[in-house]
Fold this sequence. Notes:
48% of the residues lie in helices and 14% in strands. It is an alpha/beta fold and 480 residues long.
Amino acid sequence: EGRRVTVRAWCYSIVGVGGNVVPVYLLDTDVPGNDPYDRRLTDYLYGEDQRYRLCQEMVLGVGGVRMLRALGFDQVASYHMNEGHSALLALELFTGEIEHSSNHRERALERVRRKCVFTTHTPVPAGHDQFRLDLAQSVLGSERLHVLSSLGCCDNALNMTRVGLALSHYVNGVTERHGQVSRTMFPGYPISSITNGVHSATWTAPSLQALFDKHIPDWRRNYLSLRYAIGIPADAVRQAHEEAKRRLFDEINRVTNAGFDHHALTIGFARRAAVYKRPTLIFRQPERLRQIAQRHGHLQIVYGGKAHPHDHEGKALIQQILNWQKQLRPAVKIAYMPNYDMRLGRLLTSGVDLWLNTPKPPHEASGTSGMKAAHNGVPSLSVLDGWWLEGYAEGATGWCIGSRDHGADRSDEEDALELYRVLEETILPLYYGRPDRWVEVMRSTIALNASVFNTHRMLEEYFVLAYQEQRHLQQQAGSA
């Protein structure tokens, strides 16, 4: 918009298990001398309107590249863009290369692509930022918009996903299924897949960490060693889980006064409140749910998660759950935990007995909450979508709703009936009737899922498939 915006950086240093320090730079525009509007650009995530959002993305993309250079990072081998939010960094690199390459467009394009990796994280349209062309011209300027148009990124709107696709040599979805879905959404682009993972040490409860430290001493460095959890004594696994469950219940009963019982099967559901995630599917036939609980043993369900500030349907779902909370007691106790954050997320994914996931296929790109639960020996009951297509092993890591071949064409009613059937015929009889067998499922959940769905494995794949290839190409270009 013709204004100069000064950006400063705050450095947050993360120390790894081996003592290596990784600096994380957080950009800040609340700097004296900036326009009052610009000083607020880094105040809110998902805040304000489209203009605010596009200005933020210019600060992140263009400002991010310039900040790295100002800090002395002149020879960055790989710029990894997650979704289109930072895609303008590729435009900044491209305009710089055009000048460096004496306006040789194709040579500049190839040099930028060698440096850029792009990961798309969702098949949901709302997750792919698009901006009106008049707004894009106002914020970015005519020259930048012309360059983006020439790259095929503007079709009635500036599409930030297409910016990342056009200017990256490696593009991936975050599960095998998501890669397939993304190729249908953006035909013509070679979209691969690398399945997400979670940071093991962050998402494992203290009691489980102590258990792993005792029986699998190198688990923090060697993720594959978690497969040896299959040999941990059953009583030790049970005791570690009971401690995690006690910590969660202390918090639930303190905050909500829900009166949760430590001995009752407790189901967890915590993620962003959105319609496609179907958090109320389990209440499709409330009377049947009540009868199941009365016949087989009490049920408890704990929820967590916030709606997007502008998602009124998501907010309505939370209100519906609060209404069921009153109607289904005492057979089914329900608690909705407020102020969901990472601390509460750790308590929930480690302290429940069963993790529930009910997205409408094929909208679940990955889903990581079930991976967090798996690190704590908590099996999943999930629709076969996202990561669960890869992590599901019947009766070993959990149970499924539906089938691999039929998901998108199934109705909510069909999925709800399947959910009730699995709960009534398999899960509740196992939990209350065969507790030793339940602990076996917990152990195999850690061994089969936690040992695979972690960030150590994920980053190894990125290095081999995306980053290492870039360095090789750059070395070739340098020697040429």
